[in-house]
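Incident review: delayed structure delivery

Summary: a single-chain prediction request sat in the queue longer than the usual turnaround. Root cause was a stuck worker, restarted by the on-call engineer. No data loss occurred. The affected request and its eventual output are reproduced below so the record is complete for anyone auditing the incident later.

Affected input:
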Amino acid sequence: MSANTQGVYASRKKSGSSYFRSSITFKGKHISLGGFDTETEAHRAYLQARLIISDHSCGILDYKAPSPLSFEKWVSLINYRDNGIYIANPVYIMRRMFFYYLSPTDILKFDADELFYYSSHKIMRRGKHFFAADYGLQVNILNRYGIRSYAVPGRDYIFLNGDELDFRSANISIINRFNGVTKQTKKGLVSYRCRIHIRGSIVVGDYETETEAAIAYNKAVDLLKMRGFSRNYTLNYIDDISAKEYADLYSSITISQKLNEIPL
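Output delivered after worker restart:
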């Protein structure tokens, strides 16, 4: 193989058209660098990869577009070079944590015990929301912390250090765990308000504990379903009390009579 074609292999697409694949072997591992339209592009990718793995001064933030390598592959190669673990997703392992690079400037931080999951689940971004591809579904990564998909930052949860890209568990504080429940403080007294959305937001009631408010929400949903409302509400799952305790609270909790007066 000539120097001009090192690391390059001609191939064909299902349509029959030709293209070129590039790959490199490093630390005994054969790493695909991607497919390219021309032999020259494929070879440039190989040369770029060889430079990355041999030059420890080359860092992640040295990436400049356009590049023969994708940014994800750039990160993967540097992580493998420095840490000896090849991960296809754009992950760089640190001590007790790791970075997940969506771009050179969008860097998510996670605890080390999340590495197994994010090594095989790609993160996507839509606005300020982050999703992982999981069995064909887009799952909000906040769900892994017990945060509801439609929770509001600042009201239902907060990032303690102010960094909304820092998903380490110690940095996330959950304020409101349940659907329809909001913590409120008046004159130093804490209570929990339950609301349910029908055509607008209806106050179900104010309760002394978060658990009572969560059960009140479930009771309101049951009442609305019994009256014929077809909206698909998600019930609160409460795992810190027994079935008997739940039933006793459900029976004793009162909810707003307005729910009986709302027309179908």
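Verification: The two ends are 76 Å apart (CA to CA).
Action items: add queue-age alerting; document worker restart procedure.
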